[in-house]
Amino acid sequence: MSPRDLQARELLLQVDRSRPSVSRQLEEQMRTAIRSGALAAGAQLPSTRVLAEDLRVSRGVILRVYGQLAAEGYISLRQGATPTVRPTVRFEPKTVDPPNGQPRVVYNLRPHLPEVATFPRRPWLRAVRESLEQARTADLTYGDEAGLWSLRVEVANYLSRARGVSACPEQTLITAGSTHGVSLVSRVLARRGRTVMAFENPSHYILRSAASHGGQTVVAAEVDEDGIRPDTIARADSVYVSPAHQFPTGVALAPERRTALIEWAEAADALILEDDYDAEFRYDRAPVGALQGLAPEQVIYVGSTGKTFAPGLRLGWAVLPQELVDDVAQELLNSMLHVSGFDQLAFANFMHRGEFDRHLRRMRHVYRARRDVVASLLGELLPEYDVRGIAAGLHVVLELPSHRTATAVRAAAGTVGIVVDSLEQHTFADYAGPAGLLIGYGGLPEPALEQAIKRLAEIIREAGPAGAQD
Ligand SMILES: Cc1ncc(COP(=O)(O)O)c(C=O)c1O
Fold first, then answer.
1. Atom of ligand 1 nearest to the CA of 275
2. 277 lines ligand 1 (CB under 6 A)
3. Do you find a cis peptide bond into 202, omega within 30 degrees of 0?
């Protein structure tokens, strides 16, 4: 993060009034943020008055917090000057020792990683405690395979309100994430004799794998700057798309393509499988509503908390056309894989109290700042290579001259502990589109991102355009 005036809300501080010492809570959170690099050396902190107002605590509390952190050497306080994080506090990237002698991971730039260091632990703990206290005994036994009713209500409300999905709880099922949703739907369609599923090329290889394990023959459809090209979908019974933010190219499905895709589905008597995996994070405008809202009986909608909250929770949802609800619920039952009812209770409580919305608002801000750092640094250090993709989600695409260059850069980066995906990893075998790296910024604070991008830019420079002739 470049030195500048931080707004109080950017500090992501949380006060839990049910715990004894508010000042100690704030000290602890700020210390952690400074040590981790989330609050960079030189960052200017809000004045005691502004922070106190923002957090609805007395100014004396903030004076105590700042005083303590200054005494410990984390921040500098001078009469009349803005409180500032001291430059002596250095961000030390954490390294993870792999089990089998592979290189260490110093910077993980993979595109699917959200920030979990700022996971709202206290509000989540409150949700766990409250939901358990309030749960009926029936909630603690075998639940409905389609999901806990109260969570289905919350999710349907949320999706209608925030994503423009035409959702009612009866048609909203709880899954263990988008991949699980794709897997369930693939199995159900295959059992109905619908065995060909088109996928965008490129698209996430894990999702394609889930579809083929679910009995689908996976075929490719082309993607350009406007998203999937319906005219390139060969005969298929269904098509998987990520319209709000195509993974991995980062483009959005253009309005005329949305219509064309629905028309294609009508003409082919096919279903559309919409993966709305990270649409909440749009930084240049309000998120575009889901495709499902345009044709609810033709679009199967899957979503997840994997990017918006924490992948470890394994909680997502599917909103289904009426005619698929029973079969997918049955498939859920047969899959023997359900999200724990206890987690469903907690997440329903968390959503009900507005904590999920609050978390999204907070994280949108965090990711936007990270994306800005990555995009501007890449522009500065590698002006000859374009940064692609709309301002959304958790990754950018850095276009490179060839797949060979991208593969070489990826391998060289790996040897110094920088883990990054290439576009090619997500393509079908005969892909002829642009090459590039997928640079995820979700999981690293700005100081670490700066270090990682600088190092990566050096590696790209060293690789040079030599690989351009493939
Ligand atoms: C395109 C796409 N869809 C979905 C997901 C999330 O999948 P899940 O909910 O199974 O964690 C990801 C995560 O990387 C993704 O890239």
1. 3
2. yes
3. yes
